[in-house]
Amino acid sequence: MSKNEGAVLAVVVATGISSVVTQLLTIREFLAQFQGNEFVIALIFFNWLILGGIGTLLSRVITKRSFGGTWRPTVNRLAWLSLILAALTPLQILAIRFFKNFFFTHGVSVGFYPTLAYSFSLIMPYGLLLGFVLPYSLYVIRNETPDYPGARLYITDNLGDVVGGALFSFVLVFLLSPLKAVFAANLPLLIAAWRLFPARQRLQPGVICGLGFTLVLLAAGIYWERASLKPQTGKSAYYNESRYGRITVHQDHEQFTLFVDGSPLFSNQNIVRAEEAIHYPMAQLSANARPQRILLISAQAGMLTQLQKYHPQQADYVELDPEVARIQFHYGLLQKIPGLNIIHQDGRAYLSQQAHSRSGHKPLYDAIIINLPEPETFQMNRFFTDRFFQLAKRHLAPDGIVSFSMSGFDNYLAEPQRQKISSLYNTAAAYFKHILLLPGQEIIFLCRNQPLNTDIPELLEQKGITTEYIRSYYYGNLTTDRIQYLNGLIDPDTPVNRDLSPYLMRLMFSQWFAKFGTSPVSFIIALAVLLTFYLMRISKEEFVLFTTGAMTMGSEILVIFAFQIFFGYIYFQIGIIVTLFLSGLLPGAWIGDRLKRQGQFVLVLTDILLILFLGIFIVAVLFGGDRLPPAAFLGFGFMTALVCGCQFPAALCLRGDDNPAASRAFSADLLGAAMGALCVSAVLIPYLGLVWTTVVLISIKIVSLTVIGSKSWIK
């Protein structure tokens, strides 16, 4: 072991810990700023990996072309770079919060290109430096040990990544707010960087000032935590980071509004929404019988009070995040009623669990009232697919009813919105004989196997139910002509919305561009040109690593979206999934390092295994879906990452493992991962679904397998 090898490896491990925690916090921060949109995850991964790949290439260019030895790799420079990296972390998180309302109008949705540019700009300083530091660390060691294996540094970096992912997923996310977590995750890096300085320099004023300045920046982040979340109007009455999202309550005079991930969910002064959501479906039930069981999948202000007018024997209120439910009751948005049963679980997972209960008994509900945002994310879309309506029907009493809502309708319905409600109508129609759409503040869908009555005030009068909005305004707003017109707009040829082929997400993605008069075509063309130029300049081993990076990240995105579709919200699971993939890469790299002398055989075998795993994934989602345990998807992710990890040492050995080969290999892996993240999440899954996306990944690996066996390749 060289004199400084241990200290450099300690910095590499500490950098891995810090960088993974920072990456996960950055993803969660952007999710909170952009209303939980999963496409943001793709853009963050893409930007993060692209910048890392560019930084890796820059490290070789700068050190190779150093002027008079100015940038010759040394332990001192690596220590200072590490301190700068730690200092950038709190600045990045605060910048994401502060600059959002500076660059974008408050409360206005943001298009694809502004989101891409905004995230790229804020991540760029940290991402470039992070990509620069890893190969630079290798060069520092090779100054003393020229034949030091690059695979060993890759394994060490993976070790730090795994520790960082585990620390975040199982400790920090439960105990600390984001900027406190940043402080904790960077302490090992500060210590490792300080130890990297030669002993005679550690107490010099410059080093102490640099260390102290970084520590002050990290502490200042904690101080500015609450201030960085101050609302534009009113004041912040409550703030908490639950494991499912960021929860804030804004107070403006007497009005309290609950925000989750930056999106306003519920207000205590929306009587219209409460009456429409409860009375439109409940009025359809028999007037001669007391409702037995009612299921509310989420609820907002006033709903339980309105529901109590029917005196149900039991009301099951399902809310994924216990903190959301607690805050609603604490601030008076909801009031507890007799027979209320609060269930802290994902609504769809609850129905699925009840349907597959070992006891064989599943609860039957007189009404299932879904009070969720529109299906603009995969998390929400899963409550509006064929599989969900099938689950809902199985839990309904013979004359039961399901209701949900979409955004409002006045006198004109734009074509994308018409396609959305048509898809929902056609999806629900496969399970319910009668479906009625009622226009209003929101379009209310009523789904039932018994006939539906449009005269809601008359039905309520028969039941002796008094209301404010419906009694006074229903006949004026919901005329027979408007109801018939809205229901007549349904297009029977619009595709249904399925778990594995999410038509509504395809619409949403297209609308995202159409809303701002843009198109993804120019971005795709530019990316394709740059990618073609890059692929023409790399060796076949680097091409294999490029496809493996795309495969690793594509599979990670597949698992993330499968979790989102089948099991619930990804805000918490994202850390576990990323950690699991990193955990697979570590033993894979170790095995690959032991077998690297058989490089050609290793690359062929691992490509075959990856194709096999993807085939198993297709069979699993087609025939299992949400009936499979989460461990099945996590197991697929771990094994895929393990096999992918084997390829890096083998490919690096085939390329010669010198400095240029190491930096190019690191870069190929990162750039491939960036392309895999973007293409799978932003193009393939929305337009092709999970199954055909997996087929595309299989095709990429078949090409890789062909290239491995070829005798020539463009260099």
Helices and strands in order:
Elements: H1 5-33, H2 38-64, H3 75-103, H4 112-144, H5 150-175, H6 178-196, H7 205-223, E1 235-242, E2 245-252, E3 255-260, E4 263-267, H8 271-282, E5 293-297, H9 303-308, E6 314-318, H10 322-330, E7 340-343, H11 347-355, E8 365-370, H12 378-381, H13 386-394, E9 396-407, H14 415-429, E10 434-438, E11 442-448, H15 456-463, H16 469-477, H17 480-488, H18 503-514, H19 521-535, H20 540-566, H21 570-594, H22 599-623, H23 630-655, H24 659-709
Parallel strand pairs: 5-6, 5-8, 6-7, 8-9
Antiparallel strand pairs: 1-2, 2-3, 3-4, 9-11, 10-11
Describe the model.
With 715 residues, this protein is of the alpha/beta class. It folds into four domains: 223 residues; 38 residues, no CATH class; 228 residues, Vaccinia Virus protein VP39 (Rossmann fold); 196 residues, MFS general substrate transporter like domains (Growth Hormone, Chain: A), CATH 1.20.1250.20. It is built from 24 helices and eleven strands. The strands form two sheets. Strands 7-6-5-8-9-11-10 form a seven-stranded mixed β-sheet, sandwiched between helices. Helix 20 runs antiparallel to helix 23. The protein is globular, with a radius of gyration of 28 Å.
Brief account:
The chain is α/β, with parallel strands linked by helices and 715 residues long.
> Structural class of the helix and strand makeup?
alpha/beta
What is the molecular shape?
globular
Low-confidence stretches: none
- The total domain count is 4
**How many strands appear in the DSSP assignment?**
11
Q: What is the CA-CA span between the terminal residues? A: 35 Å
Largest sheet: 7 strands, mixed
- What is the number of helices? 24
CATH superfamily of the largest domain: Vaccinia Virus protein VP39
- CATH topology-level name of the largest domain: Rossmann fold
Class of the largest domain in CATH? Alpha Beta
The helix content, as a percent range, equals 55-70%
CATH architecture of the largest domain: 3-Layer(aba) Sandwich
Strand order of the largest sheet: 7-6-5-8-9-11-10
Mean pLDDT: 84
**Could you tell me the strand content as a percent range?**
5-15%
Evaluate the radius of gyration.
28 Å
